[in-house]
Amino acid sequence: MPKYFYSCQECEYLFGAYHSPKEKLKNCPQCGTIDGLVRKVNKVFINKQDTNELKQVGDLTKEFIEVNREVLKDYRKELGNNEYNDNNSSD
């Protein structure tokens, strides 16, 4: 299982959690904020002892790249919305 890092938008708690690439944590275990977690971009780390014969290291790397691509896409969307909202509030 890969390790993902999250931070809470409310209390700024930073932590790591192991789960499958398709899962995404949403609620902060520290302060209990619902839908307050943001997944951080993480580097690829592959423990060769954990890999099995069914998945090659290259396949695991591609999987990490795809997951981080989705995280970056969410960041871009969020930043675009914030810039748009900031520009409209000054009118």
Protein model, in words:
This protein is an alpha+beta fold and 91 residues long. The chain has one domain. Helix content is 36%, strand content 16%. The protein has one helix and three strands. A three-stranded antiparallel beta sheet has the order 2-1-3, with no helix packed on it. A hairpin with a 5-residue loop joins strand 1 and strand 2 (14-18). The radius of gyration is 16 Å and the shape is flat. The N and C termini lie far apart (48 Å). The mean pLDDT is 76.
Summarize the structure.
Helices cover about 35% and strands about 15% of the residues. By secondary structure, it is α+β, with helices and mostly antiparallel strands.
- Rg, please? 16 Å
* End-to-end separation: 48 Å
Uncertain ranges: none
Question: Into which percent range does the helicity of residues fall?
Answer: 25-40%
Strand order of the largest sheet: 2-1-3
As an assembly, this protein is single chain
Number of helices: 1
Largest sheet: 3 strands, antiparallel
What shape does the CA trace take? flat
Q: What is the SS-derived class?
A: alpha+beta
Number of structural domains: 1
Strand content: 15-25%
Task: Give the SSE layout.
Layout: E1 3-8, E2 14-18, E3 37-40, H1 57-89
Antiparallel strand pairs: 1-2, 1-3
Spell out the key features of this protein.
single chain, 91 residues, alpha+beta, three-stranded antiparallel β-sheet, 1 helix, 36% helix, flat
